[in-house]
Structures are given as structure tokens and as C-alpha cells.
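User: Could you check the structure of this?
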Amino acid sequence: MTQVENTTARALLRRLAVEQSERRLPSLTAAIVRDGDLAWFGGRGQVDGAAPAAGTQYRLGSITKSLVATVVMRLRDEGVVGLLDPVGRHVPGTPFDEVTIAQLLSHSGGLTAEPPTEWWERTPGPPAAELFAKLTPGELKHRPGRMLHYSNLGYALLGELVARHRGTSWYEAVRREVLEPLGMTRTTPRPIAPHATGYAVHPWADVLLEEPEHDHGAMGAAGQLWSSAADLARWAAFLAGDAEGVLSPETLAEMREPLSVSDGDAWTDGFGLGLQLARHDGRRLCGHGGSMPGFLAGVWSDPASRTGVLFLANATSGVRYTLLTDLLAILDEHEPRLPEEWRPATHSPGLLALTGLWHWGPVPFHLRVLPDGNLSLTAVANSGRGSRFVPQADGTWLGLDGYYTGETLRVEADHLNLNTFILTREPYQQGTPIPGGAGEWQA
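Assistant: Sure, the predicted C-alpha cells are below.
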């Protein structure tokens, strides 16, 4: 599916038009991605006297961070760095040598939000050596790992890490390893025409003030890049699962796992490895927001439905971030995705013999074979621990998610051994190696 229907397109455009008009935005673009393709694009307002197009550049702001993080994950997959490595092993000499790469990626390293310079987003930025020379232990605001504390400074460190290991600038590494493979030809560190000019809109009058634009030096890895709706749609498709040539599906899934959250037990908003995460109306969304003086941007992708949504605006403030989820809701209302057709699968008799009812002590579980040949273990009452398991070369099964992630399931003659937990066909079945023994049930 590459295009939405006319009635859907009209409803999406109306929501975009309301946002541009009511929020007084000089221009605004948005797009929907489905199954890897641009399914809808809309633009309102004007850029150089004409409606913005899908190729018109806007500032991405902090969406830049996700692109830098992708190169860091490539370095991890190559064995060059480890996520638990202290950053001082790779970028020594700052007061934060003990903060890990994973903590920097997930904004849980405790570093200050902003660098100890002038307002970095509106001024030219210093090179890495000059910036890092200004740092003091006072820029560490929280114990590393304690909480989510968003840090632009942390991504200056990650950008320098990329530059040192690749022997080039962080941008050149991003361009070669992410932008080119994804076909993002309109994503650049400085604007290239056609591009929008960044504006502040007066709070009490309909007049504009042009915002400055600079090269931010070492801080560029936190928000330097410019891009277009067409390019950002390719990024949204990547986040939704089209990662071939850039990252393995397993690494992309790892980036989407929540590591730090901003709202405690509720967990509706947080961060993975370089990706902002959210839960909304049953969706698990990944992406990032972005803001720089004169610009706002946002992108969300839903890997479960292979759907993405994005916007770009040339205003310092004004866009309601509900715009993205509103556009997704309109898409769901007008064109709900059909479930995949059920089709029978072929599995070996030995695999089918494993299925059915098993018991961990008195707790019953269902063991099912999934269409891909993996196993799914779920509690009958949906109140126990469960996981999916993938077969290993040695005949064991490896847990993929839930409590048993990374744990080993072994199939024995009359029982299952799940990391010392014994599952039997009958509750506390006699004759099986249940720790503590299994006596008779009392009548």
C-alpha cells in the first residue's frame, strides 16, 4: 500500500491545516509512511512564496541524536566499543570518564542538559577539545544510571567517540553509514536550497523574527542536521523495520527497548538506545522529537504495524506534539490495517509433541508452536511468567523476551528444564527431578 485514499488524505490535510492556522506556523509539512513507502504528504504555509514540498529542508534538531546513535550501535556490533564501556576508555580526559556509553545513549548518565557555554543552539559552537576543556565535575548533576535526565552534552561526547573511531567527522560517518544506504540525499549539516528559514512568531502579534543558524561544532551531534519530509520518511521506514544495510533487526530492536523512563510506573514516555519511546493507544512508538531556534520536528514509527508519521515546521514554538498521534488516529479511523491472513504451517512431529499443557509446580502453562517455528510459553491464567523461545544448534531453546530473556530451556525425556525450573505434564509429577521431591496429592 503506497497511497492513502482520497477521503483519508482530506482528513489528514485538514488536521495539518488546523495546526498551521491555529498555531500560527509559517509553514508545516507532515507525512505518513506505510510498509516502507511514503503513503501521504501534506504541506501548508509558504517557503519562499510557495507551498513547502516533500523535498524542502527543515532543521531536524535532536532527531540528529538518533542518527549518531545508529553509528554508535554499528561500532558496538563491530566489537569496537561495548555499551558497558566507560566513555573515558574512548574519549578520555573529561570529568565523566566513568559514565557508560549505554547511559549516554539513553540519557541516564546524569550529565547536565546543556554545555557550559553560551546558549549553544543560537551561537557558533567550539570544537571538541575546546568544549571539553570547559567541563568540570559540576556538569554531573545526578548519579550515573539513577534516572532519566536529558543531556545534549552527552551526545557531544558520543559524536566525538564516533569521530575518533571512524577517523572523520561524526557527520561524515553518519552520511556514509546511515544516510547513503537509506537514500537520504537531502539530509545535510547546513541548509541547501530549497529550505525553510527559521522564525520566531511574536506571541502577541502576527509578525516574524528570523532566528540565527550556525555550525555548532562539537555540539552538532546533538542537533545540527537539516532534512526533508521525503528523507525523514525513509528514516521512519527504517525505524519501523526496514533496517537492511544499516543495522541488523536484532540491534534495531535493542535500540527500541526502554532503558530510562520519565514517568515512573506509568511508563508512557522514555528512552532506549538513542531513540525516544512512547506508548499511546495500544501502540509502542519509537522515534524522536526535535527543536532548534526557528524549527520543530518529530517522527514516530510503530514497528508492529510498519507505520510511521512525521512533521517539520519552521517555528521556534507552537506545534502540538499530539499532531503526530492525531494523524495516526485519523489513519486508523479511515483505513484500519487488516490483520494478516492466517495460513497453516508445517512443523515436525517432534516439535508438535512438545505442545500443550505443562505445569511449573501447580501452575499450568500452555506451550505453543508459533508460525516461525519458535515456541511460546504462557501461563493459562495469564498471571505467570512467560516468554518466546528460539531453537539453538545444540537442541536447547533460548528465551527471547519476558522474564526468561536470554535463559535456556532444555527438553528432557519427561520434563522441561527452564533454568532450574522443572515443568511437567502433571502438577508436581512423580518420577521427575523436581527439587525437593514430589509427594502424593492429598484427597
